[in-house]
Every structure is written in C-alpha cells, then in structure tokens.
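Final report, closing paragraph on structural work. Over the funding period we assembled a curated collection of sequence-structure pairs, and we close with a single example.
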Amino acid sequence: MTMTQTSAAAVEAAPRHRSRAALASGLVLLAVVLAVVCFFSITLGSRGVGIPTIWKAFTDYDPSAASQTVIREMRVPRTLIGLFAGAALGLSGVILQGVTRNPLADPGIMGINAGAAAFIVFGIMVLGAQDVSTYVWFAFAGAGVATVTVYAIASLGREGATPVKLALAGAAVTAILSSVTSAIVMTNVEALNELRFWQVGSLAGRYFPVFWQTVPFLVVGLIVALGTGRALNGLALGEDLAVALGQRVKLTRVVMFVTVAVLCGAATAACGPIVFIGLIVPHAARLLCGPDYRWMLAYTLLLTPTVLLLADILGRVAVAPGELQVGVVLGVLGAPAFILLVRYRNLAEL
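Its predicted structure, as stored:
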C-alpha cells in the first residue's frame, strides 16, 4: 500500500473512529442517567427518604425503622424488576422490528404480552399455580403460542407475513387473548381485586421473591438478545443477501422468536403486560445511534428501563399518596407517540 493509500485509509477511518467514540460516550451518559433515575426510584414516593436513611438501610439495617424497611423490602426490588423487565421488553421490541421488518412491531401490539398474561391468569385461577417459578412457565408457553399464532395468520396468502398483516394479526390475537383474560378474572371477585392492577402492568407489590425467581430467565434472555446484533444487521440487508453471506435465516428467526418469548414471558410474569415501551424506545435508540443493530441493542438496554422507571416514578408522585400503575402511565404517554409514529411512518422505516 502506498503512502497516499495509507493516508486515505486513515482519513476514512478517523470519522468512523470518532463516531464509535461518540456512540460509546452516549452509552456512558445513558448509564449515568439510568443510575440517577434508579436513585430517585428508591427515594421518591408517598414516603420520602434521604441519603442517610438509604445508607443506614444497607449498612446498619433496623427492621423496626419503617423507612428502612420500605427501601429494602419494597423500593429496591421494585427498581430492580423495573430495570430487568424494561430491558427485556425493549430488546424484544428491537428484535421483533428487525426480524419482521415491521417498524410497528412490539411485544404488546403483536399479542405476545397478551398471550403470556392470558396463560398466567389461566394457570393461577384455573390450575392453582401460585408461585412465580411455576407460572413463569405458563408465561413462556403463552408468549410462544401467541408468537406462532400471529406469524402463522400473517403468513397466509401469497404476500407472506407483511408488516401490515403482522400488525393486524397481532391486534386480533391481542383482542382475543385479552377477552379470555378478562373472562377468567371477572368470574371471581377476589381474583378481580387481586389481579386488576397486575393486568395493566405494575411494579407495585413486586418484591424480592418475584425478582429472584424471574431474573435467571431475564439474564439469559438479555445475553442472547445482545448477541443478535450481527444477525439482525444481516437480515436488514434482505433475506437473499443474508443467505448469500452464509446466514441461516430460518434458524436465526427461530432463535430470535424463542428469545423474545423468554424475555416477554419472564417480564410479564414479573410485572404484568406493559405496552408501548417496546415499540417507542427502539425508534428513539435508532435516532440516537443510527441503524446498526449492535448499537441499537446496547442503547435500548439502557433507554427502556430509564423510561419505565421514570413512568413508575411519575405514577407514584402524580396522585400521591395514591398511585397510578406504570402500565397506565405508559399507556397515556405511549398512545400519542404511537399515533405520531404511524402518522409519520417515513421517520421509522427500517
């Protein structure tokens, strides 16, 4: 290589290097923001606590101190579940949008959360499953059944599973499964009172037993999901080119759909069906970092729990001393964002 060619290569590499540095700096900034949001998630609520109380709760715990008990037994597990469940739903949204080539795909719209919720309610109310470690398997089954059903319905016809058909099939399956869930719950008054908050998606009342029984599945799913960036980039080039590059497209799609089922099933088992967050945040990540799915996954990993915890904090302080469930807050905020996404769809093309 000549000196001129070497210089040209160095000039071309410099912008890419600066771009990578900027993207890495963005991740660091997002991590700092997420840490701050976690701090406020622990301190804000109907009972305000300060840093000295938090410090004592972990270094010199006094079980008789109500504020310390609230921190250790309620807000810390609530925040941890929000972190992992938010990340799971966000990465699921990125994978679904990449695999289906549908900018409007997310676990809520495609019926995956509704499937997990319906199977969980069936397991609890009909089969008597009470422990999270038991009904989380119902969540996986429901998420898997919903995924297969939506994709099978959308695949009918000569065009195959187009983005529009996937969205319509997901809406239909969601409506059916939500009706089944409501029918089961409405037949039992005690169940209605017990599950009505959980049905809309909630971090309230989710303590350490729930966290420890779902976090192994979430961790495994998150690790696999973060490793799908290169495969998603290949699919973004088109199926034919991906095959030409040596990618096993069918196997890749199966692995990704299984990963989504695990992530959504575990997240739904932990805090109920939460909508919109897996749809909107991946597009925000795309605006920040560009179309490379490796960076999109990393950005979404930090952005989604930040948004989820902010919505949970807002629900706690907006009607204090009462509380709005996080699913309600995200529904109110996510619906206008969804309308804008549909209205200006050219901004969200994959």
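The radius of gyration is 21 Å. The mean pLDDT is 82. We thank the funder for supporting this effort.
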